[in-house]
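Journal club prep, notes for RB
We'll compare a predicted complex against what the paper describes. Inputs for the protoporphyrin IX containing FE case:
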Amino acid sequence: MQSAITIASLALLSFLPISSTTQPVSSGSQPIAQEDEKSPLADAMGVLKHGQRSLKKAIKDPVANKAGILETLSAMEGATLRALALQPPLPEGMTESQSPLFQVRYRIQMTALLNTLLEMEQASLKDEGAKLPELYKALTAGKKGGHREFKED
Ligand code: HEM
């Protein structure tokens, strides 16, 4: 009986539209921010900014600050995943046909950032705090590279 219910529920689920069973993904365009309202991407960047600041201090004593480091990294990973589902503002003069390549480059840099954050998390979990300063440098370099290409002045 129970298996019949399970099969029936599965059958029902398979008829549901995908959008009702998964998280929404980027529709390809961001809502336009009000004058004093930040864009969703700028919001995610704000989390990265605070996280980076707190990591800079915390990694000086990775043993005492392990819990805080892990909490900060988790918040930054979440923000990076949000940023990955968004699109950077298109530079002035960029045509639609140039845009897909631009989006791919953006995702390459954002996934590289996520990778660095995950490496930091792994180092912290394994009590390999000596690796953190080098990875922190990679984080800073990722930010510089990302902003050089995608952030408007
Ligand atoms: C640790 C890494 C990073 C930090 C701390 C960081 C921080 C920031 C901050 C503070 C802003 C300004 C937000 C505001 O206007 O209030 C910003 C904007 C922006 N960042 Fe980053 N960022 C990082 C990595 C990246 C990467 C890797 C990319 C691209 C691949 C990127 C792309 C952008 C873009 C496109 C904006 C402009 C967003 C907008 O105005 O809507 N950032 N970031």
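Talking point for the session: The domain at 35-150 is CATH 1.20.120.10 (Four Helix Bundle (Hemerythrin (Met), subunit A)).
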